[in-house]
């Protein structure tokens, strides 16, 4: 077959044959360049697809991180509300404790005062002459209450 291909060139001048040879060489060169560029194009398309997948993966990770961040923000808000509520409750309890401590101090003073009053009355009672048992006023002469109804 190569013989049939070369037959058409018979009888052509050397200059024309040289030009044909140059054109065939150039065509072969272009064919190789096209193959190289096709390979480069396929490589670039593969790299582009890989980058697209990477971008999609990063978008998904970004969306997941955004959701997680939102959840954490809500959790922080809830924790802050709980902290404020507990702080308020603590203030209320501290106020109650302070009030009760005041009442306790007041009660202790009252007990102390009553104790002093008791000692004073007891001392006064001990200083008075004992008339019970010797004299007109005794328990034996005290009228008794009758339970006969």
From TrEMBL:
<dbReference type="InterPro" id="IPR018463">
    <property type="entry name" value="Centromere_CenpF_N"/>
</dbReference>
<feature type="compositionally biased region" description="Polar residues">
    <location>
        <begin position="134"/>
        <end position="149"/>
    </location>
</feature>
<dbReference type="InterPro" id="IPR043513">
    <property type="entry name" value="Cenp-F"/>
</dbReference>
<feature type="coiled-coil region">
    <location>
        <begin position="27"/>
        <end position="96"/>
    </location>
</feature>
<dbReference type="GO" id="GO:0000922">
    <property type="term" value="C:spindle pole"/>
</dbReference>
<dbReference type="GO" id="GO:0000775">
    <property type="term" value="C:chromosome, centromeric region"/>
</dbReference>
<feature type="region of interest" description="Disordered">
    <location>
        <begin position="124"/>
        <end position="149"/>
    </location>
</feature>
<feature type="domain" description="Centromere protein Cenp-F N-terminal">
    <location>
        <begin position="1"/>
        <end position="147"/>
    </location>
</feature>
<dbReference type="GO" id="GO:0010389">
    <property type="term" value="P:regulation of G2/M transition of mitotic cell cycle"/>
</dbReference>
<dbReference type="GO" id="GO:0051310">
    <property type="term" value="P:metaphase chromosome alignment"/>
</dbReference>
<dbReference type="Pfam" id="PF10481">
    <property type="entry name" value="CENP-F_N"/>
</dbReference>
<keyword id="KW-0175">Coiled coil</keyword>
<dbReference type="GO" id="GO:0070840">
    <property type="term" value="F:dynein complex binding"/>
</dbReference>
<dbReference type="GO" id="GO:0005634">
    <property type="term" value="C:nucleus"/>
</dbReference>
<dbReference type="GO" id="GO:0000278">
    <property type="term" value="P:mitotic cell cycle"/>
</dbReference>
<protein>
    <recommendedName>
        <fullName>Centromere protein Cenp-F N-terminal domain-containing protein</fullName>
    </recommendedName>
</protein>
<dbReference type="GO" id="GO:0008017">
    <property type="term" value="F:microtubule binding"/>
</dbReference>
